[in-house]
Amino acid sequence: MESEEATVWDTERYPLSDPGSTTWHDVVAAVRAELAADGCSVIPDFVREDLRPALRAEGAAVAPRAHYDVETVNVYNIAVDDSLPDDHPARIPMRRENAFVARDLIPADALIQQLYRDADFQRFLAACFGKPQIYELADPLAGLCLNVVSPGMGHPWHFDTNEFAVSLLTQAPEDGGMFEYCPEIRTAVSENFSAVRAVLEGAEGARSLSLHPGDLQLFRGRFAMHRVTTVRGARQRHTAIFSYTERPGVIGSVARTRQLFGRVSAQHDAAVAVRGDQLLD
Q1: Which of 23, 127, 183, 263 is disulfide-compatible with 39, CB 3.0–4.6 A?
Q2: How far apart are CA 192 and CA 197, in angstroms?
Q3: Global confidence as pTM
């Protein structure tokens, strides 16, 4: 069993180092069922209650290091050219106002760094997503990052480049900052542009989540369009984003990395983007 002092999570509710236990299997089965039905699962109070103040403080300490650059984007984060039809959803502009703290700016002993590297945590996530194994993203900047949304700002509609996403709310805003998503709005073989455009133009149908600090969220973000609504009040919204892949050695693209972090490394310059489908980013 886990040593309580050595783990970030609540070991009684979530015995991650004991995959033979009934509790472990029950949690994994519940998460799988929610992912299959809704493309999203929230594991409440995952982080130990006594560690949540430290989790928040660590995020607040590095938040000022976030790369911040308000820009006009579209739901796919791609360049728009004359080849796109006039009614293509990529032609609908949005403001991207959130910021990211890159992994190399987060202390190695931070709780989210410990959690990201933990073998029991990775095995648990792989089981939840139905994968034989997952790997840490080899990207030195994007493998683990802190998403920072300041008051008066939000994170617009987008899709993830990974099939699955893992995130942990470390600091909740005073108001607003709701996570909204449209589960399975596209598939690996169909973009479903008409449905995407309808949501961007204000059609109803998106689901909303109210997350609490310490909640772990598993999400099929490659196929679900999602956003964070405008944060209100005096407090920022902080979320740790853990990026894993099904194959080792994956590095983010130069263009996307520069957009999110304002810089790239030699590893990015040498990397070739790898995708498991032909969808737009």
Answers
A1: 183
A2: 9
A3: 0.91
Mean pLDDT across the chain, nearest whole number? 91
Q: How confident is the model at residue 272 (pLDDT cuts 50, 70, 90)?
A: low
Contact criterion met (CB below 8 Å) for 217 and 168 = yes
Residue 32's SS3 state is helix
Q: Where do the H-state alpha helices sit in 63-215?
A: 111-117, 119-129, 193-200
Q: Which CATH architecture has domain 4-270?
A: Sandwich (2.60)
Q: Count H helices and E strands in the chain, helices first.
A: 7, 17
Helices (H), the chain: 22-38, 52-62, 111-117, 119-129, 193-200, 254-261, 266-270
Q: Which two tokens stand for residue 9?
A: 């999570």
174: tokens are 């005073």
| pLDDT one-digit tens code per residue, 65-91 | 999 988 899 999 888 888 899 999 999
Determine contact, residues 51/58, Cβ cutoff 8 Å: no
For residues 1 and 20, give the distance between their C-alpha atoms in angstroms, rounded to a whole number.
Answer: 11
Spell out the residues 6+ positions from residue 141 whose beta carbon is closer than 8 angstroms to its own: 102, 103, 104, 252, 257, 260, 261, 263, 264, 265, 268
Non-local (6+) Cβ contacts of 215 within 8 A are 42, 43, 44, 45, 46, 168, 169
Break the chain into its structural domains and give their ranges.
4-270
